Amino acid sequence: MLAETDVVIVGGGLAGLAAARRLHRAGVPWRLLEASGRLGGRIATDVVDGYLIDRGFQVLNTAYPQLGTLLDTDRLDLGYFTSGVLVRKGDDLLRLVNPLRSPTGGPRTALAGVGSLLDRLRFATLATGCATLPTSRLLTAPETSAETALRRAGLSDAIIEELLRPFLSGVFIERELATSSHVLAMVLRSFARGRIGLPAEGMAALPRAIADPLPADLLDLDTPVAEVTPGRVRTQAGDIRCRAVVVAVDPPAASALLPALATVRMHSYTTYYHSAPEPPLTEPILLVDGDRRELVANTVVLSNAAATYAPAGRHLVATSVVGPTPPPEPTIRAELTRLYGQSTADWTHLTTVAVPNALPAAPPPQGLLRKAVSLGDGLFVAGDHRDSPSIQGALASGWRTAGAVLDELRAT
Questions:
Q1: Structurally, how many domains does the chain consist of?
Q2: For the chain, what percent of residues have pLDDT higher than 90?
Q3: Cis before residue 365, ω within 30 degrees of 0?
Q4: Could you tell me if 50 and 181 lie in one domain?
Q5: Contact 250, 383 (CB under 8 A)
Q6: Residues in domain Amine oxidase (predicted)?
Q7: Helix (H), strand (E), coil (C) string for the chain
Q8: Is residue 396 part of a domain?
């Protein structure tokens, strides 16, 4: 059987859905093929014993520019986290907040015992510059690694190791801070300008909202693609002839379909989910380890931000570890007892979620973060490995790739 359409999109993650939205708005015939039985790609939410369990700890930043193009975030009913972090340092829990979001917390942050006062002033200057300078200026600045950029900003080893490395390891999914300084600048910009939240129905509500305006009969689930060639996509159900193909799957799958595509290294992490009868913290704030043990990247009481994540009378704690070989749950539980400063003996381990291909590595040089999406002969590639490694990068890449497809179709 040979079907026909103008554009076939392979992959129903955020990049593929964003591409479909732009093509649909332009009135160009398209079809999306998703190998699994759901949309969303790396973003998914399962229900386990009444708890909302995201496929790894993920959050939504309201400062992502592409969100406003695709949906009204109010419909997600976001529950927000405090714009700041708690740092466990010995017997103390030190609270550092974004003074732009929480002016009353500024003096306490300035006096917090993480690094020196000069460190905190220098970091505030760095973050403010990322938030206020034009993006073009940030992305044309000399590029290096994130760690080198932090040290060149005059930050001491103490604040890097006690605060920034543990915090950023959970963002970049790597502890070496080898990620590009351009990516670091955009991360600091988004954290300074936006609010961090969770949809009331779990992170899977994001791809559902993006897909909602699309005709369901053009979204083919459980349809793995065996081969992509110019003008043709091969599936088990038959071939589809088309004028253009957008491959919007994870980098390993994209390389299998498009051998000419350069291999992209992926970072992995694991999230442990625990149920607690009482919340170890009452504030919706991220907790990181300032004692330099380098085991837990971060831990947070999700239900403090979004009560819908846990059944009434219970509380959901998510703890993330970076790397491909996660430790056993009892080891993590012992760390949580130390980090929260209270017993976890009455906590219940709900599940552990390993995400082996969580985020593309983004070492320098990344340049303007916009990599080529056209491979020639009507073949295109989209995903956060073509822009910044983030939800924003996936959405922006899909939208940009659809624009490149439209330009090519109009020219032929």
A1: 3
A2: 94
A3: yes
A4: no
A5: yes
A6: 14-406
A7: CEEECCEEEECCCHHHHHHHHHHHHHCCCEEEECCCCCCCCCCCEEEECCEEEECCCCCEECCCCCHHHHCCHHHHCEEECCCEEEEEECCEEEEEECCCCCHHHHHHHHHCCCCCHHHHHHHHHHHHHHHHCCHHHHCCCCCCEHHHHHHHCCCCHHHHHHHHHHHHHHHHCCCCCCCEHHHHHHHHHHHHHCCEEEECCCCCHHHHHHHCCCCHHHEECCCCEEEEECCEEEECCEEEECCEEEECCCHHHHHHHCCCCCCCCEEEEEEEEEEECCCCCCCCCEEEECCCCCCCCEEEEHHHHCHHHCCCCCEEEEEEEECCCCCCHHHHHHHHHHHHCCCCCCCEEEEEEEEEEEEECCCCCCCCCCCCCEEECCEEECCCCCCCCCHHHHHHHHHHHHHHHHHHHHHC
A8: yes
Q: Tell whether 91 is covered by a domain.
A: yes
Packing angle of the helix pair 165-172, 181-193 (nearest 10 deg): 100
Task: Give the global pTM.
Answer: 0.95
* Enclosing domain of residue 169: 114-194
Band (2; pLDDT cuts 50, 70, 90): low
User: How does pLDDT run across 294-312, given as a tens digit for each residue?
Assistant: 999 999 999 999 999 999 9
365 lies in a domain? Answer: no
